[in-house]
């Protein structure tokens, strides 16, 4: 069987802030969005909360309207704010019980050609089981599998599963599997907490699949905290907590007698270079092996999996337990759906993306490569 991992960066629609030309402005909007939603969830608003919410609304462009470039304020029942003719922004709600509403991200359709390129990547990788990162929701992922994959000559997946995670932006972790590998059980870790609070930015779902030879394969799909947003120290600390929790989940599975375990996904960091590295608890603290370390691993001369594919951009991983490592054959990185750059292009891309053939960056399937490994299970 072939196991793959692919950050698809959404399939049909994506938050506008993710693809904004002004990256700094978009990051400010995303940070303000997260802080505002955290504040409005409080049972009672203090004066300092009200002042901070007014500042965030100004930052988001919501001082005079409920609709801004990147976000929309929903006020479904009760009054949250009043915009005075004098220009004063008056938040009249004094707690979560006074109104029903939220702040949501404005979305825009994914480029049709990019959507087709995503399908071609999955078709050409030809995996039996795929850990999918950044899918909007299960209906979108199933619709993509059932309708878009066949349009490019791919076969729909018999099983499509996604559990909503902690991120409201529609970038959840999922799994697609062929019928030969039925999903026998699944478990969410969306509510996992440690001494600092909620651990996973999205989730670390575990999918238990039966194999044709009567075995059991468990796949943990991950999307750790990105390096964008907040300080580097805070981001590193969050990823380290997530790596430690994923390692604990892996250890529990191994202690229970499950030998064939794979941890896949976008870990948003490079392989560890010391004990203080954010991913050290998972990659150094367990017996998991990254497929990049396997003999004959095909990376096309580019160790990274994101952006320009430099070593500093190796942030996507497939990690194998020892039992899977013994069953591993060929492995590699599939980049034809990524923008290859122009001076000169670094790899062969689909014609719609390759600048030598008139291709454009906006048609790229994703900024991430797909990873794959063949396993004798």
Automatic annotation (TrEMBL):
Q: Name one GO molecular function term.
A: exonuclease activity
Q: Boundaries of each Endonuclease/exonuclease/phosphatase domain copy?
A: 117-273
The protein's UniProt keywords, in alphabetical order, are:
Endonuclease, Exonuclease, Hydrolase, Nuclease
Tell me the Pfam families matching this sequence: Exo_endo_phos_3
Record InterPro entries: Endo/exonu/phosph_ase_sf, Endo/exonuclease/phosphatase
What name does UniProt use for this protein? Endonuclease/exonuclease/phosphatase
